[in-house]
Design brief:
Length: 279
């Protein structure tokens, strides 16, 4: 049988970028995805435009590629473009996971922000939290020596819950997001593909990388390790002089590893296909 979109996505997955590279990595198409090896890094090519959200050429190429179905694995820049183009997010993380690590960025209606400091696209319909795997809590486990998600079980009504939220399978445009775009996102993409949804995209790096790039107002974050002083901004200025940025390092948001080390495969059981197993 030909590989599904989720299988191709898992095979073609590359290391998600934490900051925008120059030059940019080529996008993953269905044809190249099927031929690519797992975790293979693409060759870099020169491009004549800024490979990021907000560049008119990049945004148009992204819309064309994903709306046509040519591509279906979006990085954080592409996903931000799709957000503005009527694509919605299905966040399949567990309820306790969202409560502890944060909600997918979705500003209140009327929020001024984004790259262009305009009213950003938002709304209650933009992000639907639909658990693929449920848990009874996120708490410390002495045997593991760390916090773990307790009693993980597969949500048997996942596909039905998505269908209730998105009844129009022909026209719904869904970005599937888990913690890191691996085990659960691949399994969810396969389930929705089997359910008949025509427009599906896997978010590479999941919430963990998306949240590193975009604030709650959908502004672009300053890259990790880069600090700057804005003397006209409200609030305290920690340092002025030849190198004021050095004193502002303690204002930086500290992110943990983007890869989720939690074992979700056991709870997925038979729902975790070969593509999911290698994710």
């Amino acid at each position: 049988a030909p590989p599904t979109r989720a299988m191709a996505a898992a095979a073609a997955r590359v290391a998600p970028r934490v900051s925008t590279p120059t030059p940019a990595a080529p996008r993953v198409s269905r044809a190249s995805a099927r031929a690519a090896t797992a975790r293979a890094l693409p060759q870099h090519v020169s491009v004549a435009f800024a490979p990021e959200y907000g560049d008119a050429k990049f945004d148009q190429m992204t819309r064309d590629a994903f709306n046509s179905g040519e591509e279906f694995v979006a990085d954080v820049e592409q996903a931000r473009t799709l957000w503005d183009d009527d694509w919605d997010v299905v966040d399949v993380r567990a309820e306790q996971e969202i409560e502890f690590f944060g909600q997918f960025p979705n500003p209140p209606p009327g929020t001024i922000g984004g790259v262009f400091e305009t009213v950003v696209v938002s709304g209650p319909h933009k992000v639907r939290a639909i658990e693929l795997i449920r848990s009874t809590g996120y708490r410390f486990d002495a045997s593991a020596g760390a916090k773990v998600f307790a009693n993980k079980t597969l949500n048997p009504n996942f596909a039905t819950d998505v269908q209730n939220a998105f009844p129009d399978k022909e026209n719904a445009k869904i970005i599937v997001c888990c913690s890191d775009g691996r085990q659960r996102a691949v399994a969810a993409l396969e389930a929705l593909d089997d359910a008949g949804y025509k427009h599906l995209v896997l978010l590479k790096g999941g919430f963990n990388l998306y949240n590193r790039h975009w604030t709650k107002k959908l502004n672009r974050r300053t890259p990790n390790g880069s600090f700057r002083t804005n003397l006209s901004a409200p609030g305290d200025i920690q340092g002025c002089g030849a190198n004021p940025e050095a004193g502002n390092a303690n204002d930086a948001i500290q992110f943990g590893p983007w890869v989720d080390e939690t074992d979700w495969k056991t709870a997925l059981g038979a729902a975790c296909s070969d593509a999911c197993q290698t994710a």
